[in-house]
Amino acid sequence: MHHYCAICKSPFMTDSGNAAEVVATACGHVFHRDCAERHILLKEPRCFLCGKPTSASALHKVFFSYEEGEYDHELSAIVQSGTNWMAPNAPLPVDGLQREISALREEHAFNQEEISRLDKQWASAQGLAELYNDRLARLDRLTEETNKQYVRAKEALAKKASEQGEAGEA
Ligand SMILES: [Zn+2]
Ligand SMILES: [Zn+2]
């Protein structure tokens, strides 16, 4: 028969070394040390089972008395490899997180500079577009004017031709 850690659902083994060390909270609930510390430090400082406030320093080691025949070295190795994700007493990855945060801040500042640079580019592009639109409108007016002049010149030519024709008939 084995008792289980409610956090990782693995059995407690007494001969599996520090990684699977068993601890109890002040409220009496029993977990693997790694599981309990991970829960308390990374999720919330409360007992995983009953929710009573607790802290990593309040955990105390539990000692089981087992008969030799209950040891299962293969299972114990599996439990150990499944629970030693973080070495006991290893520092929390706070440094790494802070580096990540400051890297993100730098990236954010860079992105804001990039955005304001693009905003300026966009504004000057809009200014250029307005300029070109003005020129196009002017060209349109010029073309219209030229067309009118062309029509007037054609009319004048036609009138002259017909006057010459009348003169020739006369
Ligand atoms: Zn566990
Ligand atoms: Zn509890």
Automatic annotation (TrEMBL):
Name by which UniProt lists this protein: RING-type domain-containing protein
PROSITE patterns: ZF_RING_2
Keyword presence, Transit peptide: no
Top-rank lineage group of the source organism: Eukaryota
Xref: SUPFAM superfamilies: RING/U-box
Keywords, comma-separated and alphabetical: Coiled coil, Metal-binding, Zinc, Zinc-finger
Coiled-coil regions listed in the entry: 94-121
Presence of keyword Coiled coil: yes
Gene3D superfamilies on file: Zinc/RING finger domain, C3HC4 (zinc finger)
Record domain RING-type: where: 5-50
